[in-house]
Amino acid sequence: MRKLVLSLLSITVILGSSSAFAQSENEQIVVANRKNDEQQQKKPYLILISADGFRHDYIEKHQASFLSELSRSGVRAEALIPSFPSVTFPNHYTIVTGLYPSHHGLVGNNMYDPKIEERYSLRNAKAVLDPAWYGGTPIWALAEQQKMLTACYYWPGSEAAIQGVLPTYYYPYSEKIHIDKRIEEVVKWLRLPEADRPHLITFYFPEVDHAGHTYGPDAPETKAAVQYIDASVKSLVKAVGQTGIAVNYMFVADHGMTAINQEQLLKLPMEVNPEEMVVVSGGVYMSLFVKDADKIQQTYQEILAAKAPHYQVYLKTEVPEKYHFGAKDDYFGRIGDIVLIADSPYYFSNHKASPGAHGYDPYQYPDMNATFMAWGPQIKPNTRVEKFENIHIYPLMTTLLDLNHNNKIDGDDRMVKQILK
Ligand SMILES: [Zn+2]
């Protein structure tokens, strides 16, 4: 998903026991001099797990027996509806802020901000660590502001000091650390004295998304990845159980996956002059920034006239309301003047495309829908709920952790009574 090389010079926090220079990118970073407030020490614990690209039907489709058993003991939603565009960074960040992508600023895995003429991408470590790209108040920042400690074993946004706040414990993203070692660390965190113990822990699995892209959602490799997550969650729950601490879990995904049409790839029906236009492509959608505002209408008409079937083209001022991706919602000015959105299962590419993709309209295509499950002492047992939008997870977490929040969000507390005891 993303690879980061962390420059130690860019970290303004004080590192834990070992010297800064001994740190490699795989080592934990600890913000010194933080303690749980006495009042926070009595509050519940939550582990928020994301399995990237874990489609709403994968538990049955790929026979995840442990998750299936857990879902019968706790809450399972029919599906979790991602926000548009149904891609990784925007949706992970929506889950932890309660805001639509256009409202928190991460409008894509790749972005362009015309005000500063800079690009953001998952592989651009400088951008990923720059808090200026991230709006809203992520749940770990909200908790830390109220003197409740948090730990992120990966989550998009967790390495940037958003509002000046980093999680107390976190790791620079790496896919090299073995799962057993990662589970061991979660257990260590939970065995810390109450004043140092994190109440919110985020945990992230990339494997199902990787397999879904490379082999498609129906492939045996994707089934194997689902079963790997199933076994890993089982190990995590067992190891955490041995600490004797009553922990709540939410198991979520950012989006689903669908098998795409690799034969008939979509292309922008015009030559792009980089002097006149910046193109940001997410494969399933494209954002076009036209440098001369007087030429927006003309460019739009040209595309319309030359357009092939299987995608929609909109002026930013005319993007359908349901996407929350038009001019009215563009709080950060990072949505292009013209937006192209592919119909599933078509994909924009000038070369070739992998068998699986996501990013499509999550309200129209059920394959884009993700998984939501929760279980633990604060969670209702044996409960099924209807599908809901991922903007509503934030109030669930703030209620469960008993945190105050008055920041304006898009989600509301409609799921709280249905899911929490
Ligand atoms: Zn993803």
Keywords for this entry:
binds zinc ion; disordered N terminus; alpha/beta; 421 residues; nine-stranded mixed sheet; 17% strand; globular
What would you say this structure looks like, in words?
By secondary structure, this protein is an alpha/beta fold. It has 13 helices and 19 strands. It has helices at residues 38-41, 58-61, 65-73, 88-97, 101-104, 125-128, 139-145, 179-190, 207-215, 220-241, 296-306, 393-400, 416-419; strands spanning 29-30, 45-51, 75-77, 80-81, 111-113, 118-120, 150-153, 169-170, 200-205, 247-252, 258-259, 277-281, 285-290, 311-315, 338-342, 356-357, 372-375, 383-385, 388-389. The strands form five sheets. The protein has a nine-stranded mixed sheet, with helices on both faces. It has a four-stranded antiparallel sheet with strand order 12-13-15-14, with helices on one face. Helix 9 packs antiparallel against helix 10. The protein is globular and about 65 Å long. The chain starts with 28 loop residues before the first strand and ends with a helix. Mean pLDDT is 93; it is low at 1-23. Bound molecules: zinc ion (ZN). Zinc ion (ZN) is lined by residues 52-53, 88, 209, 254-255.
